[in-house]
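Lab notebook, design round three. We kept the backbone fixed and only want residue identities now. Task for the bench partner: fill in a sequence for the structure below.
Input structure tokens:
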């Protein structure tokens, strides 16, 4: 079962055993399943069912008084229909939240772009620690997926303009929906747009028109068949910029296949693109699996 890793389960067990009271569980319930954010943007039915069942199991194991609100919440969830989509909400340090509609399945409709991946979460955390790379700038994001990184930047880093991009039709529609869901439009500050950007067809004139000062991408190095197109695009971005205003180009990758990632770096070198690895810790803001190796690189000519 995937339960809330950030929840103090050991503390909860000790409190239940010591006090034989369900007050702490009620507090937890009010901050999770009964919270207004959860009611407005409910997580998956399965996740809520497993979480509530775990709370009930621990409460009953400690022989505490039954909590009506807990059983009522589980009853509501059990009665709810399973869906192929659910909301996920990511809390920002400022107290704000990014809520996204994502697919439950990792791969669906012929794409992996309908869920948030680890590298996007890591990059989003990095942006919160390095807001100066985005403040007052035009930012272009390649392969935006469902939009977590970009919405985080727009909410917390004060860019002047943000261009989300992807190429899969279903991903683009989900991306537009999530951007709108979080109150971002061309009329807001920052001004945002969602654009179809085919890496094999985009021209230097289009890239100059966008005029990005910062270019970011997360989890775009996963398929050896598209690495060549990505490198060609990155080369265009770096070469079509004026010498006085070279964009800051950052690529964050989960290294699932070392051979594919090594091929990406080799093709960068063959294209005359140098890179250096960005090291150092980032503040842990979002709960996710940190076992995978994630690397961020900065590109330059």
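Proposed sequence:
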């Amino acid at each position: 079962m995937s339960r809330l890793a950030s929840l103090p389960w050991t503390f909860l067990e000790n409190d239940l055993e010591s006090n034989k009271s369900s007050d702490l569980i009620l507090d937890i319930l009010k901050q999770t399943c009964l919270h207004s954010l959860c009611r407005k943007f409910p997580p998956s039915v399965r996740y809520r069912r497993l979480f509530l069942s775990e709370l009930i199991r621990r409460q009953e194991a400690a022989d505490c008084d039954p909590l009506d609100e807990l059983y009522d919440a589980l009853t509501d969830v059990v009665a709810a229909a399973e869906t192929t989509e659910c909301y996920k909400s990511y809390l920002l340090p400022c107290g704000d939240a990014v809520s996204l509609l994502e697919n439950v399945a990792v791969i669906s409709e012929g794409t992996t772009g309908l869920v948030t991946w680890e590298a996007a979460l890591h990059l989003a955390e990095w942006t919160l620690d390095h807001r100066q790379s985005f403040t007052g700038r035009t930012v272009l994001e390649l392969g935006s997926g469902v939009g977590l990184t970009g919405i985080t930047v727009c909410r917390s880093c004060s860019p002047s303009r943000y261009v989300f991009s992807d190429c899969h039709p279903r991903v683009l529609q989900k991306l537009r929906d999530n951007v709108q869901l979080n109150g971002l439009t061309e009329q807001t500050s920052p001004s945002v747009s969602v654009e179809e950007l085919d890496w094999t067809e985009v021209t230097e004139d289009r890239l100059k028109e966008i005029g990005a000062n910062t270019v970011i991408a997360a989890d775009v190095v996963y398929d050896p068949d598209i690495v060549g197109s990505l490198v060609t695009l990155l080369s265009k971005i770096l070469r079509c910029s004026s010498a006085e205003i070279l964009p800051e180009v950052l690529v964050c990758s989960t290294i699932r296949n070392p051979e594919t990632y090594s091929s990406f770096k080799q093709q960068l070198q063959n294209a005359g693109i140098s890179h250096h690895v960005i090291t150092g810790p980032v503040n842990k803001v979002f709960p996710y699996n940190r076992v995978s190796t994630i690397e961020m690189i900065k590109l330059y000519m």
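Keep this in mind before ordering anything: The radius of gyration is 22 Å.
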